[in-house]
Design brief:
Elements (H helix, E strand, L loop, with lengths): L1 H4 L2 H11 L5 H7 L4 H13 L3 E7 L4 E6 L1 H4 L2 H14 L9 E4 L4 E3 L1 E5 L11 E5 L5 H4 L14 H4 L7 H4 L4 H9 L5 H8 L3 H13 L3 E4 L2 E4 L1 H4 L2 H14 L8 E5 L8 E5 L11 E4 L7
Antiparallel strand pairs: 1-2, 3-4, 3-11, 5-10, 6-9, 7-8
Helix pairs in contact: 6-14
GO molecular function: DNA binding
Pfam family, one: HxlR
Protein name: Transcriptional regulator
Length: 292
């Protein structure tokens, strides 16, 4: 999962795709991305099964890039990222738009709920155990994930997900944050559990503490309110990964909702009408000053 979506350009292209963009020129117009990078990312996303490349014009040949079911299923992850960055990362070059629910007509925030009992769920009401295909060693990416853009023209707008990339854009960071959510808090325990090189782990912990995702106290690293608010990103990403990269042995992680006692299946709902969200029912609403 991290190898596929652990890249900011990929997330930005997915965002535009979910908003209806399919053609190369529109991607290029809406993103501060070079032609070479856009071409490579579209090719990679097609190979990864997120997009289908289809011919829409002959003489000259022109193609459009349409979301596959695998790509479209990432909308809960993108929605969760959107909400977290909007609420907890104020250093954006431009203010991120609010989310508008077409069904009830209200601006909203997404909530994680349990499909079985329909109750709103936080990390405190879940337990996690390894499934048949799960373990920390098997969950570590073999290769580094792609780096996010960070210089030149990309610094103007490509930082739409700057702090999300500190979680998804590094091979150890996502696992480190998951480990913190299940109760790990000491450096030696992180090292033993994840098998991460101490220098890499120390660097990730420094990034998370500087970004106020973790707080260092008495030799322990504890989740802050901002860190706990990243819970929907972790859950939706994990759920997408387990659906689209399933192992024949069974799931890697089994989550259980302690309030109802059932295995947990996350559903995003609207905090205004409590209705289940669909990707096609979510629109962006920009401030009037930013409207074009």
């Amino acid at each position: 999962m991290l190898g596929v979506v652990g890249d900011e350009w990929t997330l930005l292209i997915l965002q535009q795709s979910l908003l209806g963009v399919t053609r190369y020129r529109r991607f290029a117009a809406r993103l501060p991305i070079s032609n070479a990078v856009l071409t490579r990312r579209l090719s990679t996303m097609t190979a990864d099964g997120l997009l289908n490349r289809t011919l829409y014009q002959e003489s000259p040949s022109r193609y459009e890039y349409v979301l596959t079911p695998r790509g479209r299923a990432l909308w809960p992850v993108l929605t969760s990222i959107w909400e977290w960055e909007r609420r907890w990362v104020p250093e954006h070059a431009e203010r991120l738009p609010t989310m508008h629910h077409v069904v009830c007509g209200a601006d909203f925030s997404p909530r994680i709920t349990c499909r079985t009992c329909t109750q709103v769920v936080t990390e405190k009401e879940l337990t996690a155990v390894w499934g048949p295909s799960g373990s920390w060693p098997r969950s570590m990416p073999v290769e580094s994930t792609r780096r996010r853009p960070g210089s030149g023209t990309t610094s103007q707008r490509a930082g739409l997900f700057p702090e999300t990339m500190s979680i998804l854009g590094n091979r150890w960071a996502f696992a480190l944050l998951v480990s913190a959510f299940v109760g790990t808090s000491r450096f030696n325990d992180f090292t033993e559990q994840l098998g991460a090189p101490p220098t890499s782990l120390a660097h990730r912990l420094q990034i998370f503490t500087t970004g106020d995702v973790l707080q260092a106290s008495d030799g322990r690293y504890l989740l802050t309110e901002k860190g706990r608010a990243a819970f929907p990103i972790l859950i939706t990403a994990l759920q997408w990964a387990q659906r689209w990269f399933a192992s024949p042995e069974g799931p890697a992680v089994i989550l259980r909702h302690t309030q109802c006692g059932n295995e947990f299946d996350a559903v995003l709902t609207c905090d205004q009408c409590a209705g289940s969200l669909r990707g096609t029912d979510v629109e962006e609403r920009r401030p009037a000053s930013a409207a074009t």
